[in-house]
Amino acid sequence: MKKDTIIIGTRSSKLALWQAEYVKSRLEEKYPALTVELKLMTTKGDKILDAPLAKIGGKGLFTKELETDMLTGGIDLAVHSLKDMPTEVPDGLVISAITKRFDPGDAVVSPEYQRFDALPLGAKVGTSSLRRKAQLLHVRPDLNICDLRGNVNTRLQKLADEDFDAIILAVAGLKRLGFGERITDVLPKSIVLPAVGQGALAIETRADDAEIRALIDFLNDDETVRCATAERAFLGRVEGGCQVPVGVYATPAEAGQLQVEAVIASLDGSKLYRDKITGQAADAESLGRQLADMLLAKGGLEIMHELGLLLDRNQ
Ligand SMILES: NCc1[nH]cc(CCC(=O)O)c1CC(=O)O
């Protein structure tokens, strides 16, 4: 091995730091002679805290600054939550590893009512995700869903400060930060499908950095990679990003198969199209694309048009 020090770029939120430290410790455990340093960085998504995420828009809100630094050699790799990664990685960069998915669920934190089912009529529910909002409104149009921005710690603080009856956060993020005991319910997948890649980490490197890529290859979890491939193919096809209420969840099925379930909904949840497909795991990418086409044909395309999103269907 030529390199004796590698530099991991990470955002500086507590969750991002946990994730970078996790990769650091797995590398150090595997390569005792290697020194791994963390370089803390700030992204546009960290700076703009007062606007709803969907309004800021722009791809790579939480990844771009890290990617620019990696392309110029400032860092060797970047650790991201897979769900924060746009489906298209910039030229010269590549996702070289996807770690084992931890828990893809969406959690309810509601000290007063505990369970989602128990929320009273018109309850004030906090989330900044269009995906969660639309799917929740579909089954509970009475809910008063309000924007809740900030990192996980800030959001938990706002639960009390801003009088929410419940807030919704990824199970994975809460558990990583040691807040697992704050979870009072987990939304069933029959109501809310997770975001693409929720619960898994992506490690991004330069495409031509063969040494680093070989070094981190052991972090890949084959099963998660297959699921993520299907989920990201779905998202790439519907051009979802964080601006469209889209959920997708792939799971291994028997005999080397993969089941992929997905949803596209209108912002207010009044229209919701959901379907699933099963096929060979080796065809993960095409399964994701087929499912996207099924949902677009059912009415998803109309929703995209209503949202004013351009779709290049010839890609
Ligand atoms: N959007 C921010 C974000 N990115 C990743 C996670 C959680 C960890 C994960 O899903 O892997 C979170 C917080 C949340 O959605 O509650």
TrEMBL record:
InterPro entries: HemC, Porphobilin_deaminase_cofac_BS, Porphobilin_deaminase_N, Porphobilinogen_deaminase_C, Porphobilinogen_deaminase_C_sf
One record GO biological process: protoporphyrinogen IX biosynthetic process
Cross-referenced Gene3D superfamilies: Periplasmic binding protein-like II, Porphobilinogen deaminase, C-terminal domain
Needed co-factor(s): dipyrromethane
Stretches assigned to the Porphobilinogen deaminase C-terminal domain: 226-296
Keywords: Porphyrin biosynthesis, Transferase
Record EC number: 2.5.1.61
Metabolic or biological pathway, per its Swiss-Prot or TrEMBL entry: Porphyrin-containing compound metabolism; protoporphyrin-IX biosynthesis; coproporphyrinogen-III from 5-aminolevulinate: step 2/4
Pfam families: Porphobil_deam, Porphobil_deamC
Subunit annotation: Monomer.
Note: The porphobilinogen subunits are added to the dipyrromethane group.
Protein name (Swiss-Prot/TrEMBL): Porphobilinogen deaminase
Organism: Selenomonas caprae
